[in-house]
Amino acid sequence: MSLSSAVNWWEEWQLRILVLGSLVIQLYLAIFAPIRKSPSLLPFYRFLIWLSYLGGDALAIYALATLFNRQKKLQCHPSYVDAGSHDLEVLWAPILLIHLGGRMTISAYNIEDNELWLRHIGVAVSQVSVTVYVFTTSWSPSADKRLLAAAILLFVLGVFRCFEKPFALRRASFSNLVTSFHPAPWTETTNREVVLEKYIQEAADFVQRNQDPPTLDMAEKQHHLERLSNHDMLFVDFAYAYDDRFEKLKSLWFLDAETGFEALRRGLSNTFNIIYTKLWQVRDENRDVDYLGGMFSILLWNITTTFPIASIILFHVSKKEGYRGSDIKVTCLLLYITYFSEILSAPERLFSIKWRSRLFKWFARFLCPRPPVMVAQHSLIGGGLLARDNKYSILLSIGKCFKGQDFLRQLIGRCYSPEGEGITSMVRDHVKDGWIFYIRDVESYWEFNDFRGHLSLQHNGCEENLGWSIEKPFDESIIIWHVATDFCIHRKPNGPSVDSKFARIISNYMMYLLSAKPEMLLPGSRITLFNTASKEISDILQGDDGVSPLDKEQLMEKIINKAEKAEAGFLHEAWLLAEALMQLGDDAKMWEVIRGVWVEMLCFSAGRCRGYLHAKSLCIGGEYLTFVSLLMSQAGLEIFPDKQQRVKLRLPKEQRVSIAKLMIEEANQPAAMVLVFGEENAATQPSASQDVVVAEV
């Protein structure tokens, strides 16, 4: 084929290829965009979704421009294409407009996209204007009126589709999300420290009396499940009122661990739908219902299911004698596959209604079981061992030329563990033990929320010897305990399987957070510590070119020998910690301590991560830390907004506890007494006589 014939072929088929390419992208997004909820999705497939999300609009606009140029050529040279195919090609313009509106399953790829909703309104106006202009200037007055009617129906759907996207982006913008949630009510005369004490006394008493979940019927179970799976105010950093916290806590402990974990998954899935898709949500107890959005969704649902069918019928009954066979086939593909991609999103609209949603979730549970929740893993020493492999060493050498070796070290050795549910159950038991055995008042409640290994060391009587390791800055403690855990695994490989397994998984996850998401680990965490530690391990292993990268035992021994001989540094401190742990005398006790410390560190980090960061991470499937934060919130512990608004304690502990217990007794026996509170004056410390008056009725 000569160059001129290839150019002629491209000019002849360019429009068809572009239109069909746009169709393929929209179908791909309709089918595969929902799987980006999975955190274990391979980067290559996530890249394809991102590329389709960005490239879909560009390809559709390019196809419209090609259509316009093609019609201008026809007007100048009537013999350029045949008249029938000319009219048929113009019918593709409203279909391209539908493609520009995007899919129900993806409105934003990143949370920052939602803040650009005003810009997208202008984009939608320009897209509709250009498409209408191309259509009106290209449509022949002598064309079949049935084709014109089909085009008008498709235009109506396309216009709705284009303006649906900025509407969805505005609804999911952070400021709009904040105003849609119900904050805690205004407090005017309430003594906050007494109300907090009352909540703690009620919660501790409830958990102690309900250590095992009761037997519930389906209606009760569904009620508690729906309460916990509503959109959580965690993501906008709102603190719940204490009464709401107590109700959520009761719902959580009424459910078994498996059902409670399913509630967490549903809640995160619903939040993902609000922020990153066009799906409209029903009213729940935390948020205001968007009546305008609901009516718009119902209207668009009716248009989606009826207008394309009517257009297909009109196309089939129109005259086709003058059309080219290839254009007829392309038009059929466009109409049917566009309708199919619309129908794929129809269940999402249909099952957003509450009673149908239950049926859909039951259907999905048994026919399409959900994949396990994955926990990201990164081993500091394991990454250093892998870096010695030829393929990674070459990659690091290339990255060094572009100052990207630190970034590559973060990626080498990253993997995922499917034990998210098991770790969540372990965190749930930790919180439960806290309510039963430790939390007695406000002070102990705050202490429990601030523990990052102290409780485990106290419980096992080794705080005096090991306490120094958790008193260092949090990011330094993470590195020391992470390396010490690897040392213990190497020297004590036959420890209790459950404790050692989960200790290692949490250890690797916390190191992953430090290397990849330091802002989520703790504000102010230093990723440079990870880079420095990683480089130090690589330097230790550099001289062993004769040792196979697979001989990990020999390489680990070299690292330990280096740590023993060092006088300072993180390796030396990690070895001192590992030595002290191994000298506890009992492997079971050692792994109980290590596992307990890591669970506390995980909760410590989860309670200090901003809700915005949790919401932002949902675009790539979410971080496992979000599960832990949500569980802590529902279990009645403090999370980020609660820690920022701690009340100042002014009353003596005994007096505060006695007042709280009186309030609980009064609530349980409303006819016995009435508690009357005086107003809390922030400038004047209240006296005991001003705090509460007990009046007999």
Automatic annotation (TrEMBL):
Q: Where are the transmembrane segments?
A: 13-35, 47-70, 116-135, 147-163, 291-316
- So which domain of life are we looking at? Eukaryota
* Keywords assigned by UniProt, alphabetized: Membrane, Transmembrane, Transmembrane helix
Q: Which residues form the DUF4220 domain?
A: 50-353
Q: Which InterPro entries match?
A: DUF4220, DUF594
Keyword flag Repeat: no
Name of this protein: DUF4220 domain-containing protein
